[in-house]
Amino acid sequence: TPLLALVLGASLGAAFPQDALKKSCSLSKYQFLVPHELKAVQKMKEQFEDIMLLSDRKCNTRLFHRKWNTADLSVPDRVMLVEAELDLATAMLGLPTTPSFTETRQRPLAFLTQAREDLRGCMAKEAPSHQPSGKLRHWLQKLEMAKRTETTSCLEASAILHLFQVLNDLRCAALREQCT
């Protein structure tokens, strides 16, 4: 029986080439995040908060404080929003830091990087020429302005401290219907 399963699996793999499987866009794996990923993010966030207590950061960025909810956006807008949020988060998690914090953030960084790549693939396939709504366009402009005017440490703090909001936005983008 194991040999039959192996042969059948190999023949099905040949019948459905990997490129054909990659052509479908499915973000469903992000609808319900697995507990060990959430725990890794929580551990990293807590360690970062401890580091922040020892620093003297004065940040004015309110990038993640919006007057609208992600659920109010169209699905392509949600995907664009989360892609931009993940771009910021992965860039900030990729910055040099202390060895212990580098180790703590490796798992969240790998997860968020994979999610960003999945989102990019979906945008390229489903809405390659999508233009963002006014709400989203304004927020994207605010993000670009923050990248030019805020310190790297403030951007890092904002991205890390709001990772659960980013994860919720990711879940919302994965849903094809309304989300809360």
Automatic annotation (TrEMBL):
Output the Gene Ontology cellular-component terms: extracellular space
Q: Which InterPro entries match?
A: IFN-lambda_sf (IPR038326), INF_lambda (IPR029177)
Leader sequence segment: 1-17
A GO BP entry: cell surface receptor signaling pathway via JAK-STAT
What are the recorded GO MF terms, alphabetically? cytokine activity
Protein location: Secreted
Keyword Signal present in the record's keywords: the answer is yes
Q: Which UniProt keywords apply?
A: Antiviral defense, Cytokine, Secreted, Signal
Its principal location? secreted
- Its family? Belongs to the lambda interferon family.
The name this protein carries in UniProt is IFNL3 protein
Q: Which organism is it from?
A: Thalassarche chlororhynchos
Q: Which gene encodes it?
A: Ifnl3
